[in-house]
Amino acid sequence: MTGIDIRTAFPDTSGTPPVSKFAAVRVALSLIRNPLKALPPEIFSEPAVFTRLGGVMRVHLADPALIHEALVKNAHLLGKGEDVRRALGPALGQGLLTADGDHWKWQRQSVAAAFRHEKLLELLPVMIDAARRAPGRWRSSPDGDIDIGHEMMRTTFDIIVETMMSGGHGIDIGRVEQSITDYLKPTGWTFALAMLGAPEWLPHPGRRRARAAANYLRSSLAAVISERRRKPIERNDLVSMLLEAKDPETGRMMSDTEIIDNLLTFITAGHETTALGLAWTFHLLSQNSDVEHKVIAEIETVTAGEPVAADHVAHLTYTRQVFSEAMRLYPPAPVVTRTALQAFRLGEHDIPAGTVLYVPIYAVHRHTTLWNEPDRFDPSRFEPDKVKARHRYAYMPFGAGPRVCIGNAFAMMEAVAILAVILQDVHLRNKSPANTEPLMRVTLRPENRLMMQVSSRKNKSPAA
């Protein structure tokens, strides 16, 4: 489908009335319960929606051309904003996800080498080994039932710790996972209170536990950095890169605080988003047996019945399409937020400084003007010809512009490898409601656990 006619995107908003106090409270309650419900319904069919809330102009963008203009052409005029700082700052500090300007730029340059294609290919065996361990754990489950979200979190965390931190000895994986959940759970409150202009110190449900979780996560990584400084290793992993990073302007090294900011960013963003994408993929496959059969057939053809190996992954094109389509329906990071640092022109409209811009990726990916039957699971949307015909910014599970996720290639390679290894070995039958609701807690989690029953796949490779 074509893009949206941007001539209809911008009404005259100079007289946009503020949202009533009652409506503001209603939006705040939606943010607390599930921020997806706070999205204006019109954004699923219109190019843009303007509101004035909490004394601030807020613009939701769904037109791909306007998204490109905002996040790419005018990226230097946009910052992360107060909402993001309040929600993520206590845990992530000023790492890649939260920093702005030159501080963001030099941090990104410092870690770029870790995500070069040749470096990623070296990591594939680690990804495959971690995926292969998962079914072994599942077979020990008394009733054969597993929480696929939890299991994918554990698998991707294993991969992050091994590839980025060379094993990260002493890290309690279970407690880290729970701490991330505890930290993200009350973020709806954080966004709601920020929107209403409430002071940052104001207590709210979950705040104390979230702060304790942030402190635990940061102290755990401080111990890793201290140990690495005491006992350096030869392997050039992410920790080593951060320890050796220098600001090109000043020559200063990263402080331990800055290293923790970035390690925690990669741990949370790097394993949580991929794990959630995988959990939703297995959920969708369990409801679409025809797609699942095609994936399994591709795996068997590419591997010739042998266990999945590193050189197979690049050839699993349909498997990749399946994961891409799952991220269309359930983008792990469902909303991008920016704040205008100064006034600028967007389309035919002047955007004042201080305006908050939202790119609701969840809505863009289900937009009625951009997608045929937007709520239907259809991996054929990602066949090469269809991808070329579509506007680049109609699909952006990893964001857009200079701040596009630096680990996007890592995540795609990891996801395809995990899907192939697991689907070659076991069959997963869904035991959760087919209409499980997505819940936004910064990332897009299922409202309830995605429970699945595991059984060995018949006629699988004997060596798998």
UniProtKB/TrEMBL annotation:
Note the Gene3D superfamilies from the entry. Cytochrome P450
UniProt keyword Iron, yes or no: yes
What cofactor requirement does the entry state? heme
Q: Which GO terms describe its molecular function?
A: heme binding; iron ion binding; monooxygenase activity; oxidoreductase activity, acting on paired donors, with incorporation or reduction of molecular oxygen
Xref: InterPro entries? Cyt_P450, Cyt_P450_CS, Cyt_P450_E_grp-I, Cyt_P450_sf, Cytochrome_P450_Monoox
* Alphabetical UniProt keywords: Heme, Iron, Metal-binding, Monooxygenase, Oxidoreductase
User: Which residues participate in heme binding?
Assistant: C405
Q: Which family does it belong to?
A: Belongs to the cytochrome P450 family.
Q: Tell me the protein's name.
A: Cytochrome P450
Q: Which organism is it from?
A: Agrobacterium tumefaciens
